[in-house]
Design a protein that fits this description.
Radius of gyration: 31 Å
Strand content: under 5%
Largest sheet: none
Order of helices and strands: HHH
Structural class: mainly alpha
Helix content: over 70%
Shape: rod-shaped
């Protein structure tokens, strides 16, 4: 297994060296094309990330809305009761 992994690394390094040699010997047009491909790849990766992020935020918003939806009345009653108790306590003090 170690030999297979080692040979895979050597093969990958060989391919990278060939690609680097090709790019170093390339003309301006090839560099422009290579840059455009990399820019498109990066743009697609960013678009995918933003889409995933938007989906995640939308799901979180729905979960928060669901958690709050059934407890609105309870929160209002609790706030009203707390206000009455604090008002009553403040009134008793001279």
């Amino acid at each position: 297994m170690a030999m297979t992994h080692g040979s895979e690394i050597v093969d990958e390094l060989h391919l990278l060296r060939q690609e680097a040699s090709r790019l170093l010997g390339a003309g301006a047009d090839e560099w422009r094309e290579f840059s455009a491909q990399k820019a498109k790849t990066l743009a697609n990766d960013v678009k995918a990330f933003l889409t995933d992020l938007r989906t995640s935020v939308e799901m979180d918003e729905r979960e928060i809305e669901h958690a709050i939806a059934g407890k609105t009345a309870t929160a209002l009653v609790t706030a009203l009761t707390l206000g009455i108790v604090i008002g009553w306590a403040m009134r008793k003090k001279p």
